[in-house]
Amino acid sequence: MITKYNIFLDDIRVPTDVTWVNIPVDQHYSVVRSYKEFVDLITLRGVPKYVCYDHDLADCHYGDGLSNDQIDYNKYQEKTGYDCAKWLVNYCMERGIKHPPYIVHSMNPIGKLNIESYINSYNRN
Fold first, then answer.
1. Which helix (H) or strand (E) holds 35?
2. DSSP state of 65
3. Rounded to an integer, what distance in angstroms lies between the CA atom of residue 65 and that of residue 5?
4. What is the pTM of this model?
């Protein structure tokens, strides 16, 4: 079930801070700052109508993926936006629905690609 709310996942920014991708700014967003807040909100309200993903959600994430071609997710204690995307894909899979429309506003090119590839691969099935 998709409900009528939007999620903006970012540890620092708000939707109006993001100018490098086209986030629909005429919408209201529930801003979540962490994996736990993301999971808790969706568990409470159901699958959102639209999701805006950031990748790096903690200071320890900054820098990884900016110049490397891989990110070692195993070294993080704090979860990333990629972990959030994987959780939501699994949540949607259990319900037999597609992942909702989304955008990745992360400035981390590898993290952004990882999120997009994971969601797009699921939605193609």
1. helix 35-45
2. T
3. 30
4. 0.84
